Amino acid sequence: MPLVSPFRTSFGTETTHDVALVRVVTDGAEGWSECVAMGHPAYSSEYTAGACEVIRRWLAPAAKELSDAGALTADAFAPKVRWVKGHR
Fold first, then answer.
1. Confidence (pTM)
2. Long-range contacts from 10-18, C-beta under 8 angstroms, 24+ separation
3. Closest among 37, 16, 49, 41 to 88, alpha carbons compared
4. Which residues have CB under 8 Å from 17's CB, separation 6+?
5. Angle, vertex CA 51, rays to CA 54 and CA 69, nearest 5
6. What confidence tens digit (pLDDT) does each residue in 58-80 have?
């Protein structure tokens, strides 16, 4: 996605940003989330592709397990994935 204005850090200047959008749909609700990590792990240890992998391998399955049990809430999800470091 092109940025409205360049993002400058000591690591350089970016004019575009890799974006990961996550859409979750259940019978009772729909929600969207955006990953704000950069495309490479230079500014922070997290990066877009790594965040997507964490979602795909651990966070989404945990959410699906709770959803299948009819128990998907923020209060139930948070302790289930608390062991995951970073990736807020």
1. 0.77
2. 11/42, 11/43, 12/42, 14/38, 18/48, 18/49
3. 37
4. 1, 3, 7, 38, 39
5. 40
6. 999 999 999 899 898 999 999 99
